[in-house]
Amino acid sequence: MSLPIARYHFIINPLVNKEVKVKVPDIKRTAPDVLRVTAFVLEKSEANEPFSVAEAAKTVQLNGINDYRIAEVLRAICLEPNGPNSLISLTTVDNQKSHANPGYWQLNPQTYYSYLSYISLLRSEEAIELAKLSLKAAEKSNQNAKISIWIAIVSIILTAVAILV
Length: 165
Hints:
Elements: H1 5-12, H2 33-46, H3 53-57, H4 67-77, H5 86-90, H6 109-164
């Protein structure tokens, strides 16, 4: 027995009283299909925009991924978009064109949290690079401070010599 779609929201977003938006990073066209489709689904889900497999294949974000591949990935990463048994019907690419019917797609919990981990890893890498730049700036500042101290010492010595002479 499947749970209603509204129940899935609580599984995906346990912070019910707080709106959490995940900033979807720009995904390169060379990224794996699963990553590109995941980012696309999350973006559309947050905007509450329905889409079909056929529409998704024509978008800029998923350009180059065919209907069959998008359908395969959606089957693996999404919940039932329009209620029970809608996943298979909306991802079946055949002459009946059921894959052209839109659905309100959401990532399943495993995919959602895996994607959050991926974004966290990206942010960590960015933080490491920023820390490296900060360290270089601190080293340069430290070097400038050492030079300033030597200049101050020389100034004191010259002033003392001038006073004594």
